[in-house]
Amino acid sequence: MPRETGPSPERPTETINPIIKQYLTDHPDLGGREQDFLINYYHNLKSEMVARSATVFRSEATRVKEQAGSHEAFKKAWGTRSQDPEKGANATKLFMGEVQDIQDTAAKQTIELFEMRRTAEIDHITGLYRGEAFDRYAEETLHANQAILQEANRGKPEGERLVSAYVAFDIDDFKTINETIKGGHRAADDEILTPMGEIIRGTPGNPGIIRSTDLASRIGGDEFVILFTQIRADAVQATVDRLLKSFQKITYTTTEGEKKSVSVSAGVKIIEDNESITLKKARHFADEAANLAKIEKNTFLIYTPDLETKIDKMITADIDKPDNENRGLQFCLRHLRQSNKRKLENIAQANPDDLLAYEALLEAQAKIDLHTKVKQLQAKEKSA
Predict the structure, then answer these.
(1) CB atoms inside a 10 Å sphere around CB 37
(2) Which tens digit of pLDDT belongs to each residue from 44-71?
(3) Which residues lie below 8 Å from residue 288, measured CB to CB, with a gap of 6+?
(4) What whole-number distance in Å separates Cα of residue 81 and Cα of residue 79?
(5) pTM value?
(6) Which CATH number fits domain 124-304: 2.60.120.620, 3.40.50.300, 3.30.70.270, 3.40.50.1820?
(7) Contact yes or no for 58/78 (Cβ under 8 A)
(8) Count H helices, E strands: the chain?
(9) Distances (CA, A) of 53 to 90, 96, 98, 105
């Protein structure tokens, strides 16, 4: 699970098994959500295992007590927690030792389960959540957070109000980078995607962009999303700007020996505390803003209700421009590439020679989509 930087509530450690304590010490990159899961699961598993053993213990104690006939005889036959084993029976002390063994076993089983869960949910290149795990946690977090924000914002001036913000972004010209980077795709993973994950989640001693209440994911290829929660409305732009500028510090070397910097384009959907919205809808809005930002590149755009009107105006303005200057065509092609991202990745891995043919197919479809959109706009203008 990814590291989630920032303040987290203090967790009592006196009741945690030493094995769990040591694991937490050895893994300072674990965020609040992961620590909570580990500790809570351990306590629940330990309680269940001890309860099962105690049931057997109590049953046997009852049998011995009935046979003993008196409390003193029972103590002599069964023993006590403080009784010296060399001076008589000491079943109680033996049971307490068994409880310690049970606790250690529960701790080891908890860590094994946690590691399996972590492997299934975390992208090994970036250290961020995979798409499915992010969607599950982010949906829960978003809905739970709305009520928290409403209470936290009570009486606050507009500029200080807290909001959530869904950010969608990817690397500009990543296809070209993969084709020209020295070392190929593996180098792109190691030199670009891994450092991006570290910038987002942080590393020990170097806080990242996200905090303990935020979630981040690499949802595929070079496509990332972040859900910022409980962030000041007037801090969203500065935070996203800092994110993009941090990515620009990542450099790579081309096969020609040229040193280049990475740039990223992003879309943002700000979610107010009184806004009822699904995670899927928030992603759609952020993606629309990102698609438009991608045309300019190395920038970000915050979604507003008039975004569709801006897109329509852009398409109308560029109707007669050549393909390489037609922003409307670029926007339609971006949409198609995004919706076919997984297929593009599969083709690139299975048979790269087919990639150019599929790209050409998408470009032809983008022209058809643009032509359809232009006709719709012209019809709308005539009927107005």
Answers:
(1) 17
(2) 888 887 777 666 566 666 666 666 667 6
(3) 267, 303, 307, 308, 311
(4) 7
(5) 0.70
(6) 3.30.70.270
(7) no
(8) 14, 9
(9) 17, 11, 9, 13
